[in-house]
Design goal:
This protein is an alpha/beta fold and 257 residues long. The chain has two domains: 196 residues, 2-enoyl-CoA Hydratase, Chain A, domain 1; 46 residues. The chain is built from ten helices and ten strands. The strands form two sheets. Strands 1-2-3-5-7-10 form a six-stranded mixed β-sheet, sandwiched between helices. A hairpin with a 2-residue loop joins strand 1 and strand 2. The two termini are 34 Å apart. The relative contact order is 0.12.
Amino acid sequence: MSNLKVDNDGMVAIVTIERPQQLNALNKDTISELSHVLDQIESDSNVRVVIITGSGEKAFVAGADIKEFAHFSPQEGQQLSAEGHKQLFDKLEKLNKPVIAAVNGFALGGGLELAMSAHIRIASENAQLGLPEVTLGVIPGYGGTQRLAQLVGKGKAIEMIVSGQFISAADAHAWGLVNQVVSLENLMPTALKLAQKIARNSPVAIGSALRSVLAGYKDGVNGFETEIKEFGNCFGKDDFMEGTTAFLEKRKPAFKG
């Protein structure tokens, strides 16, 4: 039985994690399914934007499934983290299509790490966000120590991680962890409205923009050089010709990617 539901709204794919009895916690099967779905989305030219959310009103994803690794050795723990990075969290961040995390309720541990791997985060007013791993004697292992610091700064990140405290959606917005906070009933309509606006733009240019922004966070990579290269590459694409022609003809462009 699948732990995911995938719907399409025009050029937007909506991926819903459906483990409500476990507050949508990430287990091995769910991570594997998400990885497979991302591969399908990456190769589907009809999909231009992705929304990831959790089923129900209580939780986006309330962490990882602890019972799966409670008795792991250090070597098994390292393997769990490395495989998670490769299989899902890094893959999500590197997707050439924008990913919006619609955070409904709890986004804790691996759930917050999943949301931080997305490119944009919109939270409902009832959302609670945190990395409480230290209360279990471990640390965030799916990119949390790195992405949280990138988003909110070193001091706030350390405070959240070492205290294990949850923060409200309002604080998450003030800290820069989420882009918007809306009422629960407006969460998906807001995410869809943004996704549809993005989907009307050039998918080629969007992919270049994502790669350029992410390059600035890679060790040994010059983000400005990546931007120069990606900027130039856009000029050889049909989307560039369509975009500039439409501008000069004073009409809306019809990008095909």
